[in-house]
Automatic annotation (TrEMBL):
Organism ancestry: Bacteria, Pseudomonadati, Pseudomonadota, Betaproteobacteria, Burkholderiales
Signal peptide: none
Matches recorded under Pfam families: NodS (PF05401)
Record protein name field: Nodulation S family protein
Annotated Gene3D superfamilies: Vaccinia Virus protein VP39
Organism name: Paraburkholderia edwinii
Amino acid sequence: MALSATYFEDLYRVDDDPWGYRHRWYERRKQQLTLAALPRERFRRAFEPACANGELTALLAARCDALFACDLSGRAVQLARERCAELRNVSIEQRVLPHEWPHVSASDRHDLHDRRDLPDRRFDLIVIGELAYYLDPDETAQLAQRACASLSSDGTLVACHWRHAFVERRQPAEAAHAAFDRCISLTRIIHHEEPDLLLDVWSADGRSVAQQEGLA
């Protein structure tokens, strides 16, 4: 079972940047690694679960026509909205994942700011960072299944997680990423491993950056 919202609310009550996303070089470098790993320069519609206080959200927004983000913590959602207040292509909600994963339908009827109707669409980018290890294996499998089902035919899935053990961790990064590897509809096109982090990118169409540009 995932950690309750209370745990994260307590963290944000003490510090509005509890993991140092704004000032730690490790975190700022990780954000840039994530952006550099994206196989396309621009995406139509992206989803960032567990957006925390919105630091990566603001960076992703520059690469997306529309970006939907969410977090379990109400305080995190408030902070992320403040961080992205001037970004008209960003919408942020409070949701519990994987249980409140955005619904997918074939229609694309709703405007970006229709709030609860926003998620009724597919995404061509999903970025999952520092989330899956808080879930148990069954919830992670559900997260992976819903992410795979929500991707468009040219979609990209990114996962990035801290590799060191900590008290609240339910499983290591490697086990969490293995759940995404089991999505047979996706091809892993990037695998980046460091002592501190694991970064993987999967593609629905399986092409490399050079192949997308007709160079290979």
